[in-house]
Amino acid sequence: MSKLPKLSALTFEDSGWGFFLCAYKEIRTGRGGGEFLFLSLQDSSAQVVAKVMTDVERLKNEFDAGEFVRVEGRGSLYNGQVQLVLSTIRRVNPDQDRLAGFREEDSILSAPRPIDDMWAELQEHLRGVRNDHIRVLLNRLTADNEAQLRVWPAAQQIHHAYRGGFLEHITKMAEAGRFLARAYGADEDLVLAGVVLHDIGKLQELAYDGGAGSYTRDGNLVGHIGLGMMMVREACNGIAGFPIELRSQIEHLVASHHGIREHGSPVEPKTVEAFIVASVDELDAKLNQVRKAIAEDPSDDEFTSWNKRLGRVLYKGTP
Amino acid sequence: MSKLPKLSALTFEDSGWGFFLCAYKEIRTGRGGGEFLFLSLQDSSAQVVAKVMTDVERLKNEFDAGEFVRVEGRGSLYNGQVQLVLSTIRRVNPDQDRLAGFREEDSILSAPRPIDDMWAELQEHLRGVRNDHIRVLLNRLTADNEAQLRVWPAAQQIHHAYRGGFLEHITKMAEAGRFLARAYGADEDLVLAGVVLHDIGKLQELAYDGGAGSYTRDGNLVGHIGLGMMMVREACNGIAGFPIELRSQIEHLVASHHGIREHGSPVEPKTVEAFIVASVDELDAKLNQVRKAIAEDPSDDEFTSWNKRLGRVLYKGTP
Amino acid sequence: MSKLPKLSALTFEDSGWGFFLCAYKEIRTGRGGGEFLFLSLQDSSAQVVAKVMTDVERLKNEFDAGEFVRVEGRGSLYNGQVQLVLSTIRRVNPDQDRLAGFREEDSILSAPRPIDDMWAELQEHLRGVRNDHIRVLLNRLTADNEAQLRVWPAAQQIHHAYRGGFLEHITKMAEAGRFLARAYGADEDLVLAGVVLHDIGKLQELAYDGGAGSYTRDGNLVGHIGLGMMMVREACNGIAGFPIELRSQIEHLVASHHGIREHGSPVEPKTVEAFIVASVDELDAKLNQVRKAIAEDPSDDEFTSWNKRLGRVLYKGTP
Amino acid sequence: MSKLPKLSALTFEDSGWGFFLCAYKEIRTGRGGGEFLFLSLQDSSAQVVAKVMTDVERLKNEFDAGEFVRVEGRGSLYNGQVQLVLSTIRRVNPDQDRLAGFREEDSILSAPRPIDDMWAELQEHLRGVRNDHIRVLLNRLTADNEAQLRVWPAAQQIHHAYRGGFLEHITKMAEAGRFLARAYGADEDLVLAGVVLHDIGKLQELAYDGGAGSYTRDGNLVGHIGLGMMMVREACNGIAGFPIELRSQIEHLVASHHGIREHGSPVEPKTVEAFIVASVDELDAKLNQVRKAIAEDPSDDEFTSWNKRLGRVLYKGTP
Amino acid sequence: MSKLPKLSALTFEDSGWGFFLCAYKEIRTGRGGGEFLFLSLQDSSAQVVAKVMTDVERLKNEFDAGEFVRVEGRGSLYNGQVQLVLSTIRRVNPDQDRLAGFREEDSILSAPRPIDDMWAELQEHLRGVRNDHIRVLLNRLTADNEAQLRVWPAAQQIHHAYRGGFLEHITKMAEAGRFLARAYGADEDLVLAGVVLHDIGKLQELAYDGGAGSYTRDGNLVGHIGLGMMMVREACNGIAGFPIELRSQIEHLVASHHGIREHGSPVEPKTVEAFIVASVDELDAKLNQVRKAIAEDPSDDEFTSWNKRLGRVLYKGTP
Amino acid sequence: MSKLPKLSALTFEDSGWGFFLCAYKEIRTGRGGGEFLFLSLQDSSAQVVAKVMTDVERLKNEFDAGEFVRVEGRGSLYNGQVQLVLSTIRRVNPDQDRLAGFREEDSILSAPRPIDDMWAELQEHLRGVRNDHIRVLLNRLTADNEAQLRVWPAAQQIHHAYRGGFLEHITKMAEAGRFLARAYGADEDLVLAGVVLHDIGKLQELAYDGGAGSYTRDGNLVGHIGLGMMMVREACNGIAGFPIELRSQIEHLVASHHGIREHGSPVEPKTVEAFIVASVDELDAKLNQVRKAIAEDPSDDEFTSWNKRLGRVLYKGTP
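YS: structure for the whole thing
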């Protein structure tokens, strides 16, 4: 039996075995009264629906959601989407399965760039900060949260919702934001601070251990904008001599980064830097969704099928 | 020359002298090229427009905005509103003018109830808290901010925009909120915490020294919801053993008290208590505006004139 | 065979027999071409989906929607919701089944409080009215509609959508509304009139005979706000000497109780009493939805799953 | 001294005397401290601002708002609008001034068509009704309200806000509505009923005695849609054998004629006839505003100046 | 075996054979792992869902979407909608099947009126145009696009989404629009030009060959309003001496016909004619949806089931 | 008499003479019945209100709106804004006044950068285009419209509303857009095409001769988005072999550049390039408004006064 291809390349004609993260598991009762398993499996490239229709009674106890699994199955089409129909599934036995090539990082939906590259790029941005207060603040907050910053997704499901998505989001925003700051004579250090810290509250808003992110208690009750403001406040207050005006401006960048109140910002941009940060955040999130919708569209048409979240079809170009 | 009546009772037929706070002062150039003074005067009952049309060159240096003044003048009608046309104005000389009856608290727009009464009522509410953590938190935050809490307005201009307005707002909300908490089996202590703390960030959002409130730097850049969350976070963290779940719930009450994101809440109510706090806040603010619009309407009609902020006329009842 | 538990306590591990109202019945064709029955069953505590997958041809004629039924079956999980899979079903034979404990009021989704208690409480509120005109009006309209007022739901599906829901809604609103009227110096009698009459048009808007309410012709074409205004107008005109100003104010309370035109009120609140009635109506309806969402959520998590109508998850508290 | 031209033809170069209705009168205090009179005068063709700057003390008691007046004055330009500056003004002495040509109907802002013509046209429409119930209903309601229907404006200020405007609005709508009913195979009688009755509540919503309409108590508190429904309900109930389904449909036409809830309709159109009535009401009101904006625009440009209510400029055509 | 009835009259009790257009075809995998075919079939009167559950492997290659087919099957109910369950299906063999009565125009969802009648009516409208420039323009654009204008639908799915729908839409609008133009003293020729040309861009926006319309590249990227403006511009420029003011006015009618920017019009109506065209377009599209919802509702109730697009139920009248 | 400073530096203490463009002129009647002139004067740095209160009868014929004028006068404060009160004014006599330093370009509100510099930068961008079709298209359209492109404002009043504003807007957008295109792997040539052409229709939408722009007939009736699409269509069609797919994409960039339909785009972005163009257009326009509001704010406060169009105050930084 051959190995299944990367999930992003899976077709309904493939069959074989593979290692994946089981990101979701539900036992459903079919119409005939029998049970089947409805699953969501991911590797670093994509996430697909999988089903276990046979031998359910035995297989349903062989693994849980959140675990890595080894499966055997074949592709299938359902409403135009490729799914996996599994003949067997079990949780990974790390010691044994590593011999067969299992690696955790290959089995979690991930950013396309290596995390070490993105982290190095972020450090490079931080080294370029001229304002001492801002550089100390950013160094401290990124160092204190390095473990999370390296792997966190940028959102639960809308954009960059995969391992390293947070880092991918802020490094790309840093590139765009610093350029725009220079182009418009804005304070480049402040823009970088806004970029790096605007979503810092997501480290407390989301719980993430490799599968889908989920909301924490504070995530639901306080929200990442409030949490981020409090993290910045605490960090600034821990730095001797941090100017009060600067603290206000950085908290403003966090508070206003959704651009308008309807999107959850309690205050709206009132500085050139805040307009820039909100603009590059919006654009980066939108383009991530556009790229994903185009990449995942299975047809040969010039346009994708209707994308509900974006409320439109997208142009893929002449085939 | 007789003393002018309370400003809330002023008619275009009155004339005389009085002590007021000059809340606003602007030198304007009239069409003929000459200057006149455009002022806003207040006593504890109301605020009215006043003008100095004669002897401007001399009088304009006799006082500044933010100072108490002694004026002489007469009522006048302009677009259906009573104004004061002044023949003379000078800053108050406290030592001398106290002999003529000048008292600061009589010359600042104020809540209708005495502040000491409202403060005592708030203390009574706090004594009723059964949850030790909440009681300690509320006692600490109210004690630490007593001076401001006693005199602050609840908003810059929309509702309760006068001395003691903040205290009036939260004591009335405490009465309503606690009743609703009992009626709906909600946590009465939590509701009271939400009532007392929901606008606590306004102590940092607004600057107030007796005239009109103005926005501080943090008020404009961070906003009272963010500031309030940070004040609560800091206070909770300063209380040994304060439960983390309780802190989340109280921060949620602050964050969600505007009810919907369009009104500036970064998160929307997710607990019974949060729905109650947002409801009584909205109702108390609206009724304060309604009462004010009815009280200030100068006509004998059954309805007020059009109220722009509320977008309607209001029923005053059969004359 | 044991008796099934109350539906609000049903789990996928239960099996047995029970009496229920069949609130909905549909014959569906399955994928294999065979038919199955898709039903909605209710007792006083909850409503659940039920299915008949076997022996359909015979069972489908044994009962109709709107009838009480006796069923045998077992719990089952479908998309995380508990359902009943039935092996047999027939309409109730009242004479015989009463011996086995059948009671109509146990088999209809109902308010948690006994109707007689709520009715007595309403009468108590009415006795407290000081304005003779209002008291006569309320007594007449409640007496004339007592049969319906005792059992009607407050809405077809959004809130208080069960037997006695209307009465539960207005008695709770009366408690809250009268308190707020006193707290704000509003006319307590008028607020009570608004509370009791604001939804009176629903008695003509909805048809209800114990299952789900449905819209009447006038309900769809005229709506409960218009119907309510007409009921009030007719009743006032039937009371000699009823003051015209008072009639206008009460009709205003009915017309404006949805608070804003977007929610279907042709006029918006213009009196203190109208603001109070709209506020307690909104709060009571919202809290009923919140309580229901929390009560029905099957998981052990701190938060409910996504509630589509409220557009959020809700906090259930630490497990 | 010559007679002033019709106000719709007044230019800043005209001077002379005329008879007008004084629709508004206010005593204002000028900057120099002196008083002047700010008035609004109308004849059948237009309404203009007028001012009395001299001899104010004597003239201000010579007339009141709501009275017919005889004035002498000259045209003047203010912000691009023609105004009248008056040298003298007094109330009309009917006996004497009729000799000089005074006629009340010439001095009230009026629909362009003679009222008798429009009334005859309405009667013609009513004679064409085939459904006996509808014909009786319309005859009764129009006969009972003939005096008002002949002179009422269609709105206080937005569209057809002049003597006979109501009649102009419904006769034009009848012409359009009946044609569309035939074109779309709708019930022509029902559409005519909707046209004649949709705004019937305005007879109670507005008070009108020849000048500007004003809102009544019921107009403010209940609104014309609710008032209209109640008038229709009462009239239907007074006609023996009036079918209940027909009553519901006619009330629906009144209730839904604003088309959407945001515009104040408690229910939205659910019949072909209701869609037609709402459409012709909207179009007729809009076109009346458009015509008025074009007619009153003083410039020679191809486009009018910005029309605030319509939110746009309007094309007048090549000069 | 009998012939199936018209699809608009199909019930779950019918069975037999028929010719249809297969407008949609999808191979789905059922829960048991087997495939079935999900189809959409249409004749001139309606479109219904059809399924092939048996003998799938063989039948799935017997036809494609977009082809005419001959089927045998029986009616079936699914969620209250009638569907067809097919026992066999194959593509039409025109030569042979014509003998059995196959005609293409009978098997495509079509406007209720014969196309030749509607086309003759359109020509009659064009002959009535008095302005030479407009008449030449309309004649040229309709002649150049006759083949498409005769068969095009008016939209992909919302209204008049069938063969001849475009022509039905503009002939009905011409009737209504010209009447309103005369009634309001508007330019009848301009209104007709707006009616005929407002959607002309749909000939390039949609691709249509008898089944469901689909969006072209330019339809998605440019949209029919932009495409229509460009078609008008090119046509006007091709007519010697076409007045520039007239071209602007006609382009305005195309650009503004959706009435408001939220609905996709880059400019809003600024002429009487533009208000009329937008009004009749809106009304005709809405009434087509209303008629369709009423016609397709399968129940015997007085009201249709909930119509999602219109956001309401519709009144069908007493059964 | 000294020369007045640049208008951006004018204070109420300045007096002297200067050359300006008279952008607006209106004869107003004052309260005393006398006339005065209300003017708007501009030089390259700012625009201010000016008034002529004396010698009006003679001076009012000495110049017209749209002409360059020589004035003498002094600064004055009105509602916190600096104005000019003129003692004399006459139209410029070019031959004579050039000796005194008059230059047209100094007397028209202008972009801060020299036009030749911006034009050279635009040419540099065009030289960098790799796609031959796009380069030819952009070269042709910019060459054909060079005269206008060099001086046009980017809007009538919202942003970049001055000489050279169009060029400033697109060169800055080109810088930002090309960088983002590279950063996101988008088609840099397409983005540049979108930047250069998105507002090209404004050359026909606005009339501009050095003062304030005004809307043309086509500007009002068709709008710059429609006009721009037509200009692009015509230009593409005039280039042999221009690929049809490319034309569609470029027209899409023009059609969608306002981002959402509410802002006037008939279609919304469906390509990565369209999202980028809409984003940089929005950001550049917003930042231009922000910079202007900060630059023109006369106070020494940390924040500007309320900016009505942006709906907020703006942070100017610590004084």
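YS: worth flagging: The CA atoms of residues 306 and 313 of chain C lie 5 Å apart.
IM: good catch. Also Strands of chain C lie at 15-29, 35-42, 47-52, 68-78, 81-91, 206-207, 214-215.
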